[in-house]
């Protein structure tokens, strides 16, 4: 098992290295001169050349890449082409907001999907089980930003129970922080929970037909008892795959939800940087998002080995 984990760590490191090269080259080939964009169309050629040297973009691409990735490994993402401020501190602050949102959204999705999917599987030939499956199908068709708009209209505009947007740091006011996090987390979690419910239902249905569960029931255990004692761990193996994909989707989907609820997260920073053509900031943000997705895949691979003993000796 240790060898497998070490091997996956090596694959993760190699993937991050390749991803950093791809992100850097993609930003390097985009049309437009960052120095010209920062100075405006009326800047003189001499001033543009001076600014290019100040930004370091007049050097060979190989030199630029190693300087950039070397700084990233030390937590230095460089200075913004537009504001001239350091990117690293702002990126760290924004990442914290996004992680709170993604974590809360995934918690909501799990709280919905696990009981709803299990119930729909156990009652799959009953009216109530069919109703749960139908509701999850409707939830799959609703995009997260639309769910956010509907939630704001109901709970913020009409009922006035929760704020429609904004962000309060948890250390400043924990109560207001939780109130402001509810609607964004629900808009992410309800949609992803509906998708995950379908997979939980399929995994549990497949497990219910296994011989060892029939044996457990023949010994006197009720269906739910047999499932909880012997079936859920096996059902969790395929669900973990989808859970990893959903977590990656939440990380990327947070970009739009942050805009809807005016949250100062990584998504808002990315959209602002794209609008102002601050390519160095975009480069750092995209790299962080890619590394986040790769880390999620790495954790999923490790969980496979933990959940399924057959993979440890294969």
Describe the structure.
By secondary structure, the protein is mainly alpha-helical. The protein has a domain at 97-311: MetI-like (MetI-like fold, Orthogonal Bundle). 77% of the residues lie in helices and 0% in strands. It contains 12 helices and no strands. Helix 5 packs antiparallel against helix 6 (127-140), helix 8 (174-208) packs across helix 10 (223-260) and helix 10 packs antiparallel against helix 12 (279-307). The longest helix has 38 residues, at 223-260. The radius of gyration is 24 Å and the shape is globular. The model has no long low-confidence stretch (mean pLDDT 83). Keywords: Cell membrane, Membrane, Transmembrane, Transmembrane helix, Transport. It is a multi-pass membrane protein. Residues 95-304 form the ABC transmembrane type-1 domain.
For this entry, give a set of tags.
314 residues, mainly alpha, MetI-like fold, 12 helices, 77% helix, globular, cell membrane, transport, dipeptide transmembrane transporter activity, transmembrane, MetI-like
In terms of topology, how is this protein built?
Blueprint: H1 2-29, H2 34-39, H3 45-55, H4 61-73, H5 87-122, H6 127-140, H7 144-158, H8 174-208, H9 211-218, H10 223-260, H11 266-275, H12 279-307
Helix pairs in contact: 1-12, 5-6, 5-8, 5-10, 5-11, 6-8, 7-8, 7-10, 8-10, 9-10, 10-11, 10-12, 11-12
Please outline what is shown here.
The chain is mainly α and 314 residues long. The protein has helices at 2-29, 34-39, 45-55, 61-73, 87-122, 127-140, 144-158, 174-208, 211-218, 223-260, 266-275, 279-307.
């Amino acid at each position: 098992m240790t060898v497998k984990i070490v091997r996956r760590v090596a694959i993760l490191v190699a993937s991050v290295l390749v991803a950093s090269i791809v992100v850097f080259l993609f930003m390097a080939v985009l049309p437009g001169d960052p120095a010209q964009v920062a100075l405006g169309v009326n800047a003189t050629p001499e001033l543009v050349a001076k600014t290019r040297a100040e930004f370091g973009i007049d050097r060979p691409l190989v030199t630029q890449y190693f300087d950039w990735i070397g700084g990233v490994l030390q937590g230095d993402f460089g200075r913004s082409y537009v504001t001239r401020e350091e990117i690293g501190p702002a990126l760290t602050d924004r990442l914290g907001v996004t992680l709170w949102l993604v974590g809360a959204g995934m918690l909501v999705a799990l709280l919905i999907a696990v009981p709803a999917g299990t119930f729909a599987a156990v009652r799959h030939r009953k009216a109530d089980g069919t109703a749960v499956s139908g509701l999850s199908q409707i939830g799959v068709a609703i995009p997260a930003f639309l769910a956010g708009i509907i939630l704001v209209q109901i709970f913020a505009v009409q009922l006035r129970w929760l704020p429609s947007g904004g962000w309060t740091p948890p250390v400043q006011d924990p109560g207001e922080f939780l109130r402001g996090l509810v609607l964004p987390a629900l808009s992410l979690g309800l949609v992803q929970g509906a998708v995950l419910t379908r997979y939980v239902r399929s995994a549990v249905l497949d497990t219910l037909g296994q011989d060892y569960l029939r044996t457990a029931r023949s010994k006197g255990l009720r269906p739910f008892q047999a499932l909880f004692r012997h079936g859920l761990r096996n059902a969790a193996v395929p669900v973990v795959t989808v859970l990893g994909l959903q977590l990656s989707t939440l990380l990327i989907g947070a970009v739009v939800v942050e805009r809807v609820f005016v949250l100062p997260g990584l998504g808002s920073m990315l959209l602002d940087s794209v609008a102002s053509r601050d390519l160095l900031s975009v480069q750092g943000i995209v790299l962080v998002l890619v590394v986040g997705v790769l880390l999620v895949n790495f954790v999923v691979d490790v969980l496979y080995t933990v959940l399924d003993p057959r993979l440890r000796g294969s």
